[in-house]
Each structure stands twice: as structure tokens, then as C-alpha cells.
From TrEMBL, chain A:
Residue stretches spanning the membrane: 21-40, 52-73, 94-122, 154-173, 180-200, 228-253, 265-291, 321-343, 364-388, 394-417, 438-458, 470-491
Record has Cytoplasm as a keyword: no
Protein's recorded name: Transporter
GO biological process, one term: sodium ion transmembrane transport
Organism the protein comes from: Candidatus Coatesbacteria bacterium RBG_13_66_14
Location(s) in or outside the cell: Membrane
Key words, A-Z: Membrane, Symport, Transmembrane, Transmembrane helix, Transport
């Protein structure tokens, strides 16, 4: 095979040195900023405590099954996402590239958000955001322009934070599974510990009960609303690092005998438990803010960056003792939550190119980091937040959802769900039955089609965020289209030179 | 539907039209056909105002600098109510869409005028409710009310206290809107209104209802103090309901406790079981995998 020497040039990929390293790395990838700033808000908006029922249902029927799907593929093919799809079905390599490219785009702006965190961390001990954290965020830190048309210049503190983030990412993954396995020993338990400290602190504040009541008080009538169930599936899908190629790549580093199914359960439940803990932390502290300022909890609630960069600093300002200390803890927690997710996406990209070109890992990794850094500079300008918002909305709604849909179609229908199920069961303590085939082939694709259809109709009929059409075309539809086009372009590069359907750990070509 | 609510609904309809979700451009015509048909017979001032409102209501019209003219229409009690409604909607848009303080100030003044006018059409409640519904509108509504407190609070309170006016419901709604604005100022204003024995009961009841969701411990103490006074049955009932609402807001409900337990047991319990299984299996071969980390 013409490609085999090339693949050997880069040497066999490093494997996880212990099972816990894989589990921690996968948990680290799944658990990110969204667990803190998205889940609590989604939960509150969709029935409070009652939302836990559709959420758990979505974990069982979509989250964990898709994790098993990706782990099985990655482990069986022992490759990054594009090569795994190639091995599964020759013409489906583009699905793997689509996933990797979506992850790459997300990393580019995710690193900018981490740059914001760095800047806030440096301000923490002096509470440098002052009495108006919201104003500090938009005016002093971001120098936010009037709209996407006014890009302004580079924001140097953000660029510095961005550079720091990328250097950090590079050193975390420079030796692949070997270095990641060591890094996650710190970056996964640490944010959990810090979150726990903040939860305990929040729970002891005046007004915590009011906040927790908002979060957990069940509104059972919401269970009759199909939108709530779709929101639960959306939360699970966005939160589990699915369809980025990350889980496929990480599973490819697993030793031959690995318990795929139980790993998926542990990782899925860990992500959900982190979200739940984050919800307790966020709402108990929001209750404190609401009571102190005579607002309802809903009145002070925000989701996304507004929560962590405007509302939370306001709360930190009002803490009765050690506000600077708790502020530092909060932003270190965000950074350590974010870094695993960021480097896992980069790892998926780098591994894909190492597989594709057969090059050594180091130059590929440096190239990926530099290109992503350069792309991220767009989001480190005065108008960067507008572009970040547009790109984030479109790439998640269309790139990610479609990636997941095509993944289910290729693996469930074309490759065969049964083969992957049997492979997953081979060394797993918990065996999955034929119901899994149904979920992968019919149920999850149906959910994704409905979600995609609703998002598409909404986006076409209501221009997102009131942005001008040209901005939505350039940063939204344009980026999504570029990701799709590049997926096919990358598939064509050296397509005949370094690809072969052989090389599965489980044997067989999959054709 | 009573009159103020009907007109508030018309304002909202006008706003949807002006926002481009309904008939474009001619906001006044579809709302009040009689105004359009009678327009030729009206005064030149009316025609000018109608032209202004129609022009500003067109999609993409530049609203900047139009606040004073619109406020003049809104404040003119003798003007056609349909035109006032359309102008009010545009003024709300000016306040939301145009940056700066002058436009909210103009709206605030118009609100005061309308309130002193007995607020026969529910302008006060309508404007503020509309503002608070729009993107970023809560801040603007708070700014408008803040401007009232700076400059014309006494007049505003006076308008609420006026008895015998036909707009009691509108004033009650205005008090409710203050509650939706939230914050320290809203709370203190509502406490002052609820505590003012000179105000009609309806206004005080509305103030108590509005302060309960944002009152917490302070609100509870205030209402308990109020309960010791000689109150009318309707006020006493409002105080009891307010206390119950505060308890409901502040204390974790049984349902919330149950869902907390469900979350902890299923998520953390499930995690513990999965990890236990993996450790048990690890003793067999996984943690001492024969591949020793190599394929």
C-alpha cells in the first residue's frame, strides 16, 4: 500500500497510559464553558427541575449512544475522524473533515473567550472591573464597536491573552495522548474542586434559596412542550463534544482491550453531573444578587458570556469577604474548564492531518495552532464579539448538527450500526442491545433533522440577531459553506496516495 | 376588554406594524380607518402630524431628532387618539433605537403629561410595558422612570393619587410596570406607594402585588408591619397574598427539593455505579492491560 510507509513515518500514535487518562481527557473535552453558562439557563427556561427528566432521557437515548458510536469507530479504526470515516466507507471521509473543520472554527473563537478569561483573571485580585462589570467587559476590555461592519483595530490585551492560550494549548498536546494524559490529571479535577468550593460558597449566601428555587422548582406543564424536549437534546448534543471528531480521535488512542460502553456512561454522566453542579452554583449566587438588589432571579439571569463576564463579577464584588480570592478561583475554574475542550478540538485537527499527510506531529500541530491563532485574530478586534456571535450561531446550528446527522447516516446505515454495536460489546462490561441500532439509525437522526429544520426556518425568516444580511452571509452562511466545501477539498487531497481501508483494530474493511 | 387594555393592545399592534411584521409604512391607516377617511377635513396641524407620523412609521425611516415632535403629539389630550397611539409607538421606538438621553427624557415628559391628563388611554402603562418588552428595553424603561424620579416624581405620584379620574386601572397598571422594572428604586417606590394611605386602595393593592416578587426579607418585614395597621379587606387580602408570594419566592419548594434529590441520585449515583463497575473490571484486566499502553 502506497500510504503505509507514510503512516509509519509518523510512528504509531501514542496510547493512553491508563484508562483513567482517557476518561479524564474525554470528560475534559465534554465539560466546558457551556456547562456553566448554557445548561443552567436552558434548564431554567425549560421547566426548571422538570427539565431534568427530558435531559436525562436525552442523555440515555442520544448522548451516551452517540458517545458509544464515536468511541467504537475511533477505537476500531485506530485513526482520527477523517481516516476513520474513510476506513468505514471510502467516500465518507468528508464527514470526518466536516467534523474536524467545525471543531477547528469553534476552537478559533473559543480561544478568544479564554483570552477574555485570562484578562479577567489578571483583574481578579483588585476586582479591576469596578462597579460596572458589564461596561468593563464591552467598553474597556472588548472596546466593542457599533456593529460587525466596524471591525476596528486589534485589541492587544486580547491578542496577548490569545497568544497565551495557544501556547498553553500547544504545550498541553505537544506529545499527544502522553502529554494530554498528564495534563488532564490537573485540568479536569481542578475545575470540579473549584466549582464545588464556589457551590458551597454560593449555598451559604443570603438568597441562595431563592435562586435554587428558580433553578429547581419544577414546572411540569413544560413536559408537554415538544420544544423543551428538543432543547434537552440540543443541550446534550452541544455539551458532549459530539460530532467534532474529538471522541473518535481520543478513542483511537485506547489500548486494544477497552470497555467502550462503560466509558461512555461515565463520561456522559460526568458531563451531566458537572452541568447540574454548575447550575446549583450559578443559581445560588444569582439568588444572592437578586435579593441584594431587589430583583427577581430572572431579572438578573443572563446566559452566555454575559453571565460570566458581567453578572458573575457583579456578584463577586458584593461577596462579604475575600471577593478577590473567589474571583480568581472563578476565572481559574473557567480557564481549566475551557482548556481541555480547546485542546481536544486542536488534537482532533492535528491528528487528522498527521493521518492524512503522514507528517511528523510537531510541525503539523504548530501549523494548526498558528492558523487557528491567525483566524482567531478576527475575534480579537473591536468588532470581534459581533463576528464571534454570528459564527458561533451558524456553525453550531448548521455545521455541528449536520455533522452529527451525516455521522449517524454513514455509520448507522452505510457502515452498519450492528457491526459497531458488536465491536463495542466485545470488551465492554455493559452490553448494548439492538435498541442502540434503532437509536443511531432512526431516533437520533430524526431529532437532528427536526432541530435542523426548525433552526433553518427560523434563521431564514428572522435574520439572526438583527445583523445586516452581508454580515450573516459572510460570517454565517459563508463560514458554513466554506466548511462544507473544504471538507470535500481535503478529502480529495492525496486521496489516492495515503488511504487504505485496512488497518482496523477489529479487522475488516467495512466496505 | 376594557378601554385602556384595548388601547394598549392597539399600541402593541401599531408597534408590530411599525416593526415591519404587519402592514408596512402606513401605521395609522389600518389602525383607525376613520382617521384616514376624515383626514381631509381636519386641521392643517392634524394633517402635518399625520404626515410626520406616517413618514416616520415607514420602514427604515430615520427617527433621530423626532422625539420632541412625537412627544408633543402624545401629550396633546385634544389630539385624535389613533394618531396619539401611533405617535406613542414611534416615540417608544425612538427611545429604544436611538441612543442618548434626550429621547428618553422626551418620552418621560410625555408620560408625565399623559399621566397628569388622567392617563385616559393607558399611555403610561402601555409605553413602559412596550419598552420593557423590547430588546434592551428594560434598561431604557428604567432610565425613563429614573428621569421621572429626577425631575417630575412628585407630579407622577400626584397623578397616581388623583381621585375621581377615569384612569384608575391605567394607574394600577403603571404601578405594576414599575414592579417589572425591578431594582432598588422600583422597590422603594412601591413601598412608598403601598404605604401611602392617601392613595386609592387599587393603587396600593397593585403596589403590594408588584413588590412581593422583589421584596424578599425586607418586603416581608414591611408587609408584616402593614398588616398590623387598620386596613380595608382588599388591602389586607393583598398583604396576605404578598406575604405568601414572598415565602413562595424565597423558600425552596418541596418540588425543588425532590428534583434536587433526583438529580443527585441519578447523576452522581449513576456515575458512582459506573465507576464501581469500571474498577471491578479494572481488577480483571483493563488497568493492567496486556498491551501496556501500546497497540
Amino acid at each position: 500500500m502506497s500510504d503505509e510507509p507514510k503512516l509509519l513515518e509518523s510512528g504509531p500514535p501514542a496510547k493512553w497510559n491508563r484508562r483513567s487518562a482517557f476518561i479524564l481527557a474525554a470528560i475534559g473535552s465534554a465539560v466546558g464553558l457551556g456547562n456553566v453558562w448554557r445548561f443552567p439557563f436552558v434548564c431554567y427556561e425549560n421547566g426548571g427541575g422538570a427539565f431534568l427528566i427530558p435531559y436525562l432521557f436525552a442523555i440515555i437515548t442520544a448522548g451516551i449512544p452517540l458517545l458509544i458510536l464515536e468511541f467504537s469507530l475511533g477505537h476500531k479504526m485506530a485513526s482520527g475522524a477523517p481516516l476513520s470515516f474513510f476506513k468505514a466507507r471510502r467516500n465518507s471521509e468528508w464527514v470526518g473533515w466536516l467534523m474536524v473543520l467545525v471543531g477547528f472554527v469553534i476552537t478559533a473563537y473559543y480561544a478568544v473567550i479564554m483570552s477574555w478569561c485570562f484578562n479577567y483573571l489578571f483583574q481578579s485580585f483588585s476586582l479591576g472591573w469596578g462597579d460596572d462589570p458589564g461596561g468593563f467587559f464591552t467598553d474597556k476590555l472588548l472596546h466593542l464597536s457599533s456593529g460587525p461592519g466596524e471591525l476596528g483595530g486589534l485589541n492587544w490585551p486580547l491578542v496577548a491573552g490569545l497568544a497565551l492560550t495557544w501556547i498553553w494549548i500547544y504545550f498541553c498536546i505537544r506529545k499527544g495522548a502522553k502529554s494530554v494524559g498528564k495534563v488532564v490529571l490537573v485540568t479536569v479535577p481542578l475545575p470540579w474542586l473549584l466549582l464545588l468550593i464556589l457551590a458551597i460558597r454560593g449555598g451559604t449566601l443570603e438568597g441562595a434559596g431563592a435562586g435554587l428555587n428558580y433553578f429547581l422548582n419544577p414546572d411540569w406543564s413544560k413536559l408537554l412542550d415538544p420544544g423543551v424536549w428538543l432543547a434537552a437534546y440540543g443541550q446534550v448534543f452541544f455539551s458532549f463534544s459530539l460530532a467534532f471528531g474529538v471522541m473518535i480521535t481520543y478513542a483511537s488512542f485506547l489500548p486494544r482491550k477497552s470497555d467502550i460502553n462503560n466509558n461512555a456512561v461515565i463520561i456522559g454522566l460526568s458531563d451531566a453531573a458537572t452541568s447540574f453542579l454548575a447550575g446549583l452554583t450559578v443559581f445560588s449566587t444569582l439568588g444572592f444578587l437578586a435579593v441584594g438588589s431587589h430583583h427577581t432571579v430572572a431579572g438578573v439571569m443572563e446566559s452566555g458570556p454575559g453571565l460570566v463576564f458581567a453578572v458573575y463579577p457583579t456578584i463577586l464584588n458584593q461577596l462579604p469577604f475575600w471577593p478577590g480570592f473567589f474571583a480568581a478561583i472563578f476565572f481559574i475554574m473557567l480557564l481549566t474548564l475551557g482548556i481541555d475542550s480547546a485542546f481536544s478540538l486542536v488534537e482532533a485537527s492535528a491528528e487528522a492531518w498527521v493521518n492524512k499527510l503522514g507528517l511528523k506531529r510537531k510541525p503539523v500541530l504548530i501549523t494548526v495552532c498558528v492558523i487557528a491563532f491567525a483566524f482567531g485574530l478576527l475575534f480579537a478586534t473591536d468588532g470581534g464579539l459581533w463576528w464571534l456571535d454570528i459564527v458561533d450561531n451558524f456553525i453550531n446550528k448548521f455545521g455541528l448538527i449536520l455533522g452529527g446527522l451525516f455521522e449517524c447516516i454513514v455509520l448507522g446505515w452505510l457502515y452498519g450500526a450492528r457491526k459497531l454495536r458488536e465491536y463495542a460489546n466485545r470488551d465492554s462490561e455493559i452490553k448494548i442491545g439492538r435498541w442502540w441500532d434503532f437509536l443511531v439509525k432512526y431516533f437520533t437522526p430524526a431529532i437532528l433533522v427536526v432541530t435542523f429544520g426548525m433552526d433553518l426556518v427560523k434563521t431564514v425568516t428572522e435574520p439572526y440577531g438583527g445583523y445586516p444580511d452581508w454580515a450573516l452571509f459572510a460570517g454565517g452562511w459563508g463560514v458554513v459553506a466554506a466548511v462544507f466545501v473544504l471538507s470535500f477539498v481535503f478529502m480529495r487531497i492525496h486521496a489516492n496516495k495515503n488511504r487504505a481501508p485496512a488497518g482496523e483494530q477489529g479487522g475488516g474493511t467495512g466496505e | 376588554m376594557n378601554r385602556p387594555n384595548l388601547l394598549t393592545a392597539l399600541i402593541l399592534l401599531a408597534s408590530s406594524v411599525a416593526a415591519g411584521t404587519g402592514e408596512p409604512a402606513t401605521t395609522v391607516g389600518p389602525l383607525h380607518p376613520e382617521s384616514a377617511t376624515e383626514a381631509s377635513g381636519r386641521s392643517a396641524r392634524y394633517a402635518e402630524r399625520l404626515e410626520l407620523v406616517t413618514r416616520l412609521g415607514a420602514e427604515g425611516a430615520d427617527l433621530e431628532g423626532s422625539a420632541d415632535a412625537l412627544a408633543a403629539i402624545v401629550s396633546d389630550a385634544s389630539e385624535d387618539s389613533g394618531l396619539r397611539a401611533a405617535a406613542a409607538d414611534l416615540l417608544g421606538r425612538v427611545t429604544v433605537e436611538v441612543s442618548g438621553v434626550e429621547e428618553p427624557r422626551a418620552l418621560a415628559c410625555a408620560l408625565i403629561e399623559a399621566a397628569l391628563d388622567g392617563d385616559p388611554s393607558g399611555w403610561t402603562a402601555g409605553y413602559l410595558a412596550e419598552l420593557s418588552r423590547r430588546k434592551g428595553g428594560a434598561d431604557r424603561a428604567a432610565l425613563v422612570v429614573g428621569l421621572m424620579t429626577d425631575e417630575r416624581l412628585a407630579e407622577f405620584h400626584q397623578s397616581l393619587a388623583l381621585d375621581g379620574r377615569p384612569a384608575l386601572e391605567a394607574r394600577e397598571a403603571a404601578v405594576g410596570v414599575i414592579g417589572t422594572i425591578e431594582g432598588d428604586w422600583a422597590y422603594e417606590t412601591l413601598v412608598a406607594l403601598a404605604d401611602d394611605a392617601g392613595l386609592p386602595d387599587g393603587v396600593r393593592v397593585a403596589a403590594i402585588g408588584a413588590l412581593a416578587p422583589i421584596g424578599y426579607d425586607e418586603g416581608r418585614a414591611f408587609l408584616r408591619g402593614l398588616a398590623r395597621e387598620d386596613l380595608s379587606p382588599s388591602l389586607r387580602e393583598a398583604v396576605e397574598e404578598g406575604l405568601a408570594a414572598i415565602d413562595h419566592t424565597q423558600n425552596i419548594s418541596l418540588g425543588a427539593w425532590i428534583m434536587f434529590a433526583v438529580g443527585v441520585i441519578l447523576l452522581f449515583g449513576g456515575l458512582a455505579i459506573s465507576i464501581t463497575i469500571s474498577i471491578r473490571r479494572g481488577k480483571k484486566h483493563v488497568f493492567s492491560d496486556e498491551s501496556d499502553g501500546e497497540p
